[in-house]
Amino acid sequence: MTGNDHPSSHMTAEEFEKALPRLSNLSGNVVAAARYVLVDGHGPSKAGELVGSMSRQSVNNAVKRVRAILDGFPVDWVRVNELMPPELAAEVRQRIQVAVEELNK
């Protein structure tokens, strides 16, 4: 697939360009890799090659970071995927919900 045919592609070049100021804290490679996937429709492996030896996993992480920022999450927030007891997971989810509500005030 090329162009905007890739299933992960969901932004026009114009939309991405308008969003660039919100991505200014990210490295150029992160922004470029995300653009190759979101706008140009390349898969993560090809986007990594185009950026220059960026792994598929790094490209996927770049796309997740860009999407999170564009969805309104602060640049300094981090994604966490950890195993924990159910009680702790419930507490963490509740704290996340409170933090998101604070963002949306």
Overall helicity: 55-70%
State the major sheet: none
Going by CATH, the architecture would be Orthogonal Bundle
The coarse overall form would be globular
End-to-end CA span: 41 Å
What is the CATH C level class, in words? Answer: Mainly Alpha
Q: Determine Rg (CA atoms, Å).
A: 16 Å
Number of domains: 1
Enumerate how many helices there are, as a single number: 5
Unreliable segments of 5+ consecutive residues: 1-8
Strand content: under 5%
Sequence of secondary-structure elements: HHHHH
Class by alpha and beta content: mainly alpha
Q: How many E-type strands?
A: 0
**Overall pLDDT:** 88
Task: Fill in the keyword field for this structure.
mainly alpha; 0% strand; 56% helix; 105 residues; disordered N terminus
Structure description:
- The chain is mostly helical.
- It has one domain: Arc Repressor Mutant, subunit A (Orthogonal Bundle), CATH 1.10.10.2690.
- The chain is 56% helix and 0% strand.
- Helix 2 packs antiparallel against helix 3.
- The longest helix is centred in the last third of the chain and has 18 residues, at 86-103.
- It starts with 12 loop residues before the first helix and ends with a helix.
Topology of this structure?
Elements: H1 13-19, H2 28-38, H3 44-51, H4 56-70, H5 86-103
What is shown here, in short?
With 105 residues, the protein is mainly alpha-helical.
